């Protein structure tokens, strides 16, 4: 099968790149082993851990992906990434010039570039704009620790009450403890009768609280649950990320996939790219685990790092799993003894040139790009830039492919 561009991966970077290339009318195929790390992500997208992330990205070492993108393009692509998320129906708040703060499932503020509309956030990481709140959570829910959020809000000067609620459908699920997970709860809250019952419970118990706080499980296919509840109970409803899997992350991946397909993109889901052909220093095709061979002008490797399957390591060596590309490996070991320090293995990944063309045997392959978590030379945890690098490097690659 012949395409203009073939992308290997199904996560944030693959989908961003795919949408951008497909929307100018190119024929794009995406090959994905499975779901991506978005399934673990609260969708609190980080650009860089700093009060002014944009400014911080302008002072990074030359090999950092943001330095390869360039200061002006980082700014422009951050805007474009936000537009694409919004176009996919992923409504966000936040600015690249000033971080805001989102609460974590363990009840701490964390610096953030973009967070989803309707999450519990703070402009300054100190206070919130309400003085009393009622927390409502499903009885027996396993992925939300209410007391962390109570302690956190109280430390911000908020008066808090808590309310466990039961709905008949959730009570049945409690018979099997593994069923009380975020996606199952969200699916139950898709249903009209459960939304109505929950609205009634909140109205009866909210008292004089100014805000209602809930775990981020408000609807899976039904995207209007939070708005509907806000209207019914006449309060702002703010959500707190749960432990993984993240309903919001799963929804974001599904929304981006739908957008990619609506632009004419094709997804080969549950296909792993296992072989490739290289002729005259360009990639001519890849073949998937199901025996499908795809030829294209350009190929994009967006296969993630260790967790996504793009990189593999045995403690002594780190390798790129498909093409055997050159990788950056730390000289002084992969880990440090202090677990709270930046871990060197987090900055491992494939080496690219300044146009994000992947390097093999010291030489860039003309039509093979790499983007996202498979890249080397940044630390997504320490720098808080996982989503930012994934989206911006993907858009930079898309621009290069479109303008070639
Ligand atoms: C637990 C967790 C929480 C996070 N939370 C945040 C957060 O709150 N904020 C933030 O900014 N960042 C966060 N990140 C980081 C951020 O989510 C990632 O950096 C980013 O999503 C990476 O996207 P990606 O598309 O490059 O890779 P991935 O999401 O890893 O996707 C890789 C894809 O490639 C596919 N694949 C791999 N090999 C092949 C192959 N050979 N053939 C076909 N398909 C293949 C995989 O199946 C997968 O679909 C988090 C990461 C993790 C792990």
What does this structure look like?
The structure is a single chain. The strands form 6 sheets. Strands 1, 2, 12, 13, 14, 15, 20 and 21 form an 8-stranded mixed β-sheet that branches. The mean pLDDT is 94. The chain is globular. With 404 residues, the protein is an alpha/beta fold. The protein is built from 12 helices and 21 strands. Helices cover 30% and strands 25% of the residues. α8 (192-205) packs parallel to α9. It folds into 2 domains: 2-94 and 249-403, 3-Layer(bba) Sandwich (FAD/NAD(P)-binding domain), CATH 3.50.50; 120-240, Rossmann fold, CATH 3.40.50. It has helices spanning 12-22, 53-57, 65-69, 71-87, 146-155, 168-173, 182-188, 192-205, 225-233, 247-262, 380-383, 386-403, and strands at residues 2-8, 28-32, 92-93, 100-103, 109-112, 115-116, 121-122, 132-138, 159-165, 211-215, 236-240, 266-269, 273-279, 282-288, 293-301, 311-313, 318-320, 327-328, 349-350, 357-360, 363-370.
Oligomer: single chain
How much of the sequence lies in strands comes to 15-25%
Spatial separation of the terminal alpha carbons: 22 Å
Can you summarize the main beta sheet?
A: 8 strands, mixed
The chain-level structural class is: alpha/beta
CATH domain class of the largest domain? Alpha Beta
Mean pLDDT: 94
In the CATH hierarchy, what is the superfamily of the largest domain? FAD/NAD(P)-binding domain
- Could you tell me the number of beta strands? 21
Q: What's the CATH architecture of the largest domain? A: 3-Layer(bba) Sandwich
- Per CATH, what is the topology of the largest domain? FAD/NAD(P)-binding domain
Low-confidence stretches: none
DSSP summary: helix tally? 12
> Roughly how much helix do the residues carry, as a percent range?
25-40%
